[in-house]
Write a structure and sequence with these properties.
elongated, transport, cell membrane, single chain, MFS_trans_sf, 731 residues, transmembrane
């Protein structure tokens, strides 16, 4: 209903203004706008856990009482001071059912819910985007998976999210958001526990090398019936665990974002959301670091093993992180379930909100302001249609999909890229990647929200900021023109005598190891004293071995290494040869820049999405956006990158004629494919942001007389005008 409402400031000047109130539980679409009202002229005195006292206790009641009412004792003491009154103390109390102890109300604030949502997003990021990407190589090795299969495991998360997003965002957006969030975090924890289950249901991991196996000797091949493990079917358990991760995290980044946005001031919303997403970015960084540490622990804890983490047959304790994250998620879900449907004091922020929703030519966007809109399934098609008719929203979704493809692909296979380029172990590569993601991803995410708040950017100005970040990362991605050369490997990258392989075909046999009977199913690379890597000690022609005090194993009497030296018997050390690539610092620096600017645009793009749609459609809009982002980006990203990386493989695992995981990649091909994918998606993202900015049509209220400094046509304005209705907190 609309009703004229007179407000009188301290100086006694009346201001006639139309207030638009919606019935339960709709927020106010349009806000107040005054031509010449000072901060002191508004009823904005903030009191803890209080709300504007309108006709009833909340927007869910009819409006028949003054919006702001001064208590007599307040008037006597402070003159025209205003006091907010809340009549929903019981309904808005924090607790579980009738159990609402007073000590819990300390956390019943925006900062309180932000803390628990940050903890949940940190655990989600650490598990899904940290641990899984860190242990992907170990899982491939342990369960004989190929890269496209591990990519399918990673994509199962997004597949589940796409299935649930429409239902969760539509009904959860009009329901009790904290309950949806709490149950989601609980399901996510169950998914983590399920993901660790294969470790306990499979037999012990047996390394097919004893202390002396692998040196030059005859009849070393394993029987095929023993070599083929059949563990690849466990990928379905991993996919189910990821499926539960996707179901549980669906409310977190749709309802969680809108719950924060609804319960804080508009200007502070980007900062709160940035903190929330920064925790989500720091989660993967912690996952890479902690997961890399766990990979240095042998998967069968307490068991003595002769190989070291540098050995390619080593499998670290990949499952520990999932157990810890699963238990922590179950604990975090409990306090989230206790929060009310909206926080005390949030009503005044809803009244003060300025709409920046994109204006459709036919005026159909006004349907979303209907108090009864969006409460039933019948309104679902109309809700979808309204969003599809919003070109700014559509192109923001497409831009997000292009960014998500690169983020999903690089986060899944980024450690593997570093492992191949710099000849690192899986744990070292994961730690390296964590060092990149912590400052670049986390810092970029927080900085993006800070810039939006600092410069008070409007919706179109935010889109221009996203465009600037995308162009910057596009220029930096050209760094993948360079790459680190492969370490020379006999029979794989070069012939045993040092010449190039004819036609690039493998030839692991040579005169120096012809009598050794070396098996292909035992891959244990060694680094010869000539600086060349060999497939195994056997393929290097080594006949003896000894352990050094440092724990390293050294092989002697290596006939193939001796032939390269042409002077006496050579030696070989277990593990890969250390890369001395001079381009490493340059490559790492520009990878840092790409990650920084990619994440720098994430919060501004999310804020622009929230602002270009009507208030009642925010949760549903985020749900639809995530469907588009995951369908076009998150799901195909890891699968496409996995298939691309498989194409750059030089040496495949051979299990009795069955192709397993990849042992050695061609660095130049891997960089080339990464460059092509990066350029394609960054150029598309740039184009989508340009179109979104050009097509954005702000509401006429943006150019109203009460908002100075707004451009005449309202398009592509960069500076957001400060709302004329302020609170004491803003002064």
């Amino acid at each position: 209903m609309e009703m004229p409402h007179n407000l009188t400031g301290e100086n006694g000047f009346p201001f006639a203004q139309t207030l638009v109130f919606s019935s339960p539980p709709a927020p106010v679409e349009n806000s107040l706008s005054f031509d010449a009202l000072s901060p002191k002229d508004t009823c904005d005195t903030p009191l803890s856990n209080s709300t504007l006292y309108s006709s009833a206790s909340s927007p869910s009641d009819s409006c028949t009482k003054p919006l702001c009412e001064a208590a007599p004792e307040e008037k006597a003491q402070y003159g025209e001071g205003i006091k907010y009154v809340s009549a929903e103390e019981e309904e808005l109390a924090c607790g579980w059912g009738a159990f609402t102890p007073g000590c819990l109300q300390f956390f019943n604030t925006p900062k309180g819910i932000l803390f628990f949502l940050c903890a949940a997003s940190f655990l989600q990021g650490m598990t899904v985007n940290g641990f899984i990407n860190t242990v992907i190589t170990s899982i491939e090795r342990r369960f004989d998976l190929r890269s496209y299969q591990s990519g399918l495991i990673a994509s199962s998360y997004d597949i589940a999210a796409c299935i649930c997003l429409t239902f969760v965002s539509y009904f959860g957006g009009n329901g009790h958001k904290p309950r949806w969030l709490g149950w989601g975090v609980l399901v996510m924890g169950l998914g983590s526990l399920l993901f660790a289950l294969p470790h306990f249901t499979t037999g012990r991991y047996e390394v097919p090398l004893s202390e002396d196996v692998g040196v030059c000797a005859s009849n070393q091949s394993l029987a095929c019936t023993e070599a083929v493990s059949g563990l690849a079917s466990y990928r379905f358990v991993f996919m189910l665990g990821q499926f539960l991760h996707g179901i549980g995290a669906t409310p977190l980044y749709t309802l969680g974002v809108t719950y924060l946005d609804e319960n804080v001031k508009t200007n502070y919303s980007p900062v709160y959301i940035a903190v929330f997403y920064t925790a989500a970015i720091l989660g993967p960084a912690a996952g890479y670091l902690v997961g890399g540490m766990f990979l240095n622990i042998y998967t069968e804890i307490g068991r003595e093993i002769s190989i070291t983490p540098e050995n390619t047959l080593w499998v670290g304790a990949w499952w520990i992180g999932f157990l810890g994250a699963g238990v922590a998620s179950l604990l975090i879900s409990i306090p989230i379930l206790g929060y009310p449907h909206r926080l005390p004091g949030s009503q005044r922020y809803i009244v003060m909100r300025v709409s920046e929703a994109h204006q459709l030519k036919d005026g159909s966007h006004k349907k979303a302001s209907d108090p009864d809109f969006g409460k039933t399934v019948k309104d679902l098609p109309r809700s979808v249609l309204l969003l599809l008719k919003n070109p700014t929203f559509i192109f923001l979704c497409l831009a997000g999909a292009t960014e998500a493809t690169l983020i999903a692909g690089m986060s899944t296979f980024g450690p593997k890229f570093l492992e191949s380029q710099f000849s690192l172990s899986a744990s070292e590569a994961a730690t390296f990647f964590g060092y990149l993601v912590v400052p670049a991803g986390g810092g970029g995410t927080f900085l993006g929200g800070f810039l939006v708040n600092k410069f008070k950017l409007r919706c179109s100005g935010i889109i221009k900021l996203c465009l600037l970040c995308t162009v910057s990362s596009l220029l930096a991605i050209f760094i993948f023109f360079i790459h680190c050369p492969n370490m020379p490997m006999a029979g794989v990258t070069q012939m045993y005598e040092g010449s190039a392989l004819p036609g690039g075909r493998l030839n692991l046999s040579a005169a120096c190891n012809a009598e050794c009977g070396c098996p292909r199913d035992t891959y244990s690379p060694v680094c010869g004293s000539d600086g060349v890597m060999y497939y195994s000690p056997c393929h290097a022609g080594c006949k003896a071995s000894r352990n050094l005090k440092s724990g390293k194993k050294v092989y002697g009497e290596c006939s193939c290494v001796a032939e390269s030296h042409r002077s006496g018997p050579g030696e070989a050390e277990a593990g890969k040869c250390t890369s001395s690539c001079a381009k490493r610092p340059l490559l790492l620096f520009f990878m840092f820049v790409v990650i920084l600017f990619t994440f720098l645009s994430s919060i501004p793009a999310l804020t622009a999405t929230l602002r270009c749609v009507s208030d009642r459609q925010r949760s549903f809009a985020l749900g639809i956006q995530w469907i588009v982002v995951r369908t076009l980006g998150g799901i195909p990203g890891p699968i496409a990158f996995g298939s691309m990386i498989d194409k750059s493989c030089l040496l495949w695992q051979d299990q009795c004629g069955e192709q397993g995981s990849c042992y050695v990649y061609q660095n130049s091909a891997m960089s080339r494919y990464t460059l092509i994918a990066g350029l394609v998606y960054k150029v598309l993202g740039t184009a989508f942001f340009i179109v979104a900015c050009l097509l954005y049509k702000p509401p006429l209220a943006e150019s109203a007389p009460g908002s100075s400094g707004t451009s005449e046509n309202g398009n592509c304005d960069l500076q957001e005008n400060k709302p004329s209705l302020q609170t004491e907190e803003e002064k």
